[in-house]
Amino acid sequence: MNETLLDNPAWSALNSEHADFAMGSARAKRYRPGVVPFTACRNAQEGIEELIPWMTKGETFFIIGHLPVLPPHWSLEHELPCAQMVLAQTPPAVARQHDAATVEELRAEDAHDMFQLINLVQPGYYHADTRLLGTYYGIRQNGMLVAMAGERMRMTGFAELSAIATHPEHTGRGYAQRLIEQLCGMHAAKGITSFLHVATTNERAIRLYEHMGFRQRREISFHKVRG
Q1: What is the number of other CB atoms lying within 10 angstroms of the CB of residue 120?
Q2: Which of 33, 48, 105, 139 has CA 20 to 30 A from 131's CA?
Q3: How many Å apart are CA 16 and CA 131, to the nearest integer?
């Protein structure tokens, strides 16, 4: 697989598997509003100003990777350094516990529960229609969605695992591992390589992903910008 596609993941996705979600020009694109707040340029050194007509004044969004010189009225609010990790080997099977719940594919009728869970655990990156980007799986307990994970940026040969979230009252039961295993198995069956992004400060999650067969490819930042 051509891993250089991952150097500019949003651009690679918006010009392949996610082209239907793209708005912008030949040099700069964004995901349409309400899907996911990511923008990208073909060349990190130029073209960012071509996104201005496609942005709402005061809107916040993310530029992943190299940060170009911003237009005068745009400002950088935050930088989140992340480890970009790529699946290097088949994840080990997760030991099933006595209270093992069923993994189910999440659908349109689950949209509200998905939005509530992910924004409880990881606010800011998941919007109402982010679920449209790929397949999502979840685990319920007594009818309540307590864990979920799915696909975000998808491009030729690669799919990003994202929205990996477990309700704080249901952690420690191996739910995240089971959902990762489900997604990676689906990708492997399709000949797709799984990858993900995790904050470099989240050492516990990095250890989990390494245990699941992921290797760190590079460090890449998510820059939060206000337009």
Answers
A1: 11
A2: 48
A3: 18
Torsion of CA 155, 82, 1, 127, to 10 degrees: -20
Return d(Cα 144, Cα 31) in angstroms, integer: 30
**Distance of alpha carbon 100 from alpha carbon 88, whole angstroms:** 27
Domain with CATH 3.40.630.30 in the chain: 84-218
Tens digits of residue pLDDT in 80-123 = 999 999 999 887 665 555 456 899 999 999 999 999 999 999 88
Tokens of 226: 């206000």
Q: What's the CA gap between 204 and 123, in Å, rounded?
A: 19
CA distance 198 to 154: 17
pTM confidence score: 0.93
The CA radius of gyration of the chain, in Å to the nearest whole number, is 17
β 158-166/75-87 pair status: unpaired
DSSP symbols for 69-90 = PPPTT-EEEEEEEEEEEEE-SP
Fold (CATH) for 84-218: Aminopeptidase (3.40.630)
